[in-house]
Amino acid sequence: MALRPGLVRRFLSTSIFSSQSSAASIASASASDSAPAVPPSTTLFVSGLNKRTTSEKLHEAFAKFGEVDNGNVIFLNARVVTDHASGYSKGFGFVRYSTLEDAEKGMKGMDAQFLDGWVIFAEYARPRTPPGQSAFPETNQFTS
Length: 144
Fold this sequence. Notes:
Blueprint: H1 5-14, H2 20-34, E1 43-47, H3 55-63, E2 68-69, E3 72-73, E4 75-82, E5 89-97, H4 100-110, E6 113-115, E7 118-124
Antiparallel strand pairs: 1-5, 1-7, 2-3, 4-5, 6-7
Helix pairs in contact: 1-2
């Protein structure tokens, strides 16, 4: 049974491993073995966010890796997904850069780093699946 790479990284970040670098290297090694690579994208998926992290804090954290023009960082979007009832973060968000190079710098710079006291993980966002299709077709039990 293969585990999703995100689960392995989450386990390693919260377990007895004291060194972030060793946990991150173990997680990246296991991630490269089991999952197909996600194609590079200007949009990053950020997980492991604190429930009180806001879109503004996410923007500030990733701003140092973006394209700078006249002192302003050019983002298309930095958004924390929130619960409608409580207004708190659901623990993940998306950051969109203007170029692939900036997205790669942001992903490498913020992956396995602390934000609001929690270890966050940044990776390229997967494209949305069309409605009615499974995101994981190999696990669909109802196909013949």
